Amino acid sequence: MSAKKRTVALLSLGGTIVGSGAASTSAAYDPGKLPIKDVFTSIPEVGDMAHFEFQTLFDKGSPDNANIRLLLRTIQRCQERADIDAIIVSSGTDTLSELSTAVCCGAHDAWTKPIVFTGAMRPVTGLSADGPRNLHDAVKVAIDDGTRGRGTVAVMNSEIFQPPFFIKADANKVDAFTGGEAGPIGRVESDVVNFFWGPAQPKCPRVPLKNLDGDDPLPWIHIEYSYLGHEGITLDRLAKQEGPDVCRGLLLAGMGAGCWNEKAGNKIRELHAARGAEFPIVASRRTATGFVGMADIYGLGDSCTRAGYLGPEQAAIVLQMAVDNGWDGEKIKAHFHGA
């Protein structure tokens, strides 16, 4: 007796995977132009794997997919429905790491159904388009029994990754993504899903977003990158802000393991003293990978929360959700340092 087909909700956030261009070898194309269902149904045999429900949340390029509440709210509803077994989210790759981190770290305890992110580096109209294969592999992973218990995963170029240790390391190549310090957790070999170890959740800050209603953007968090000769001009402006529409926190992308020069470091400490616990400051690094976790960071002392293995983009989205939840600086620090 054949197994019952599972039902997968496919949420489209636009991007290259549903992009279309006039020339097959041109880098110029319109992201989010094609309906995800049209792209999906063009993939041989994929329709026989499961039943599918399609929803388009965004139809633009990935830099404009900032409605985190809508994404989490839609996933919440899919998790609550008894007739849906798994969820696939297709998105533009420029923000794929941030979006998957938001879902991974913002997941609620009741979310038990697999969530699989995927995207494409080439539009459907391009030569050797990678989107159809990535969608095929995402379906295989979504319906595989071995995916359950892993929370949120991502599938690109036949490799399986686990956010938040999932980063875009190249702007152009098809194999643009890596698993950072964790590496890939598995591969899709032809039609077989191979995980390298049993189900496990990643160690990362857990910040389930409380308010999933409406479309208000998450609080403004500024990311400041360190560089040789940094003068700290933006830091001065942040210290003087007043009123309701102000920056609510700071994410630092420091040199090496989070280091800053003396001048900028002093201004960061002054900013911390001026804005207090209601203005959390999290220290990360500008390198692609690495750990920021020393109790005393060069140039900053112990004035900042440390991001651990999270890069600036991942740590910023976690910080945004924590501030939106109304967490104070000590609670934010406990969650980052506890991970």
From TrEMBL:
It comes from Moelleriella libera RCEF 2490. Keywords: Signal. Residues 223-336 form the Asparaginase/glutaminase C-terminal domain. The active site is at residue 16. Its EC number is 3.5.1.1. GO terms for molecular function: asparaginase activity. PROSITE patterns: ASN_GLN_ASE_3 (PS51732). The keyword Transit peptide does not apply. SMART domains: Asparaginase. This is asparaginase. Substrate binds at residues 62, 93-94. Residues 1-22 form the signal peptide. It holds the Pfam family Asparaginase. GO terms for biological process: aspartate family amino acid metabolic process. It comes from the Eukaryota. Residues 8-199 form the L-asparaginase N-terminal domain.
